[in-house]
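User: I'm writing a short methods note and want a consistent example. For Glycoside hydrolase family 3 N-terminal domain-containing protein, I'll paste the sequence; you return only the structure tokens, no commentary, since I'll be parsing the reply automatically.
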Amino acid sequence: MNDWSEALHRVSKLGPGTKFVGDLLGATIFPQVITAVASFNASLWEQTGRVVSDEPRAMYNWGDAGLTFWSPNVNIFRDPRWGHGQETPGEDPVLAGKYAASYVRGLQGYGGNPLKVAACCKHYTADELDNCNGVDASTLMPRLANKTLRIPLMFHLETVLEGKVATVMCFTCADSNLLPNTSEGTGSLMGTLFPIAIQ
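Assistant:
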């Protein structure tokens, strides 16, 4: 897949799917996700998603953008030393789920057929666990079979799946019990599952 880009709080120039050339010099920049979520304003999050997706849709019409965006980042922010905390909705799984569902609705458009752009929630379950005293996502994943441990790690993404997100990026994909289209109690995945680390 060669047409992806990021759209966490704006259309990013990172990734092969977006080109700022000619009259397209940049995109509207919104506050970092963790700051926007502090407003507790779901209609603001959805409106931000709409504006963020309007711009690449226009760029696509000019041939300067793809329509797949690896956003939002739905990891739960557990440790301030993790370098991507500002991209996330924070530490509350309920608020993270509400934010992500609203932002995805804004990005993809109402009804979702056809999609305005394809949102990709990332990363499904425990990507934010950098190595700490020998524990990281690869050593934690086998322990997540216990439903008690899975609920706080997956609730936020289940909310987004119910909202019909187009794609999900999984961090560690070896455990079929953790995948969104097979795990007990999760919503169905509308589109694609992108693995980035298969054990």
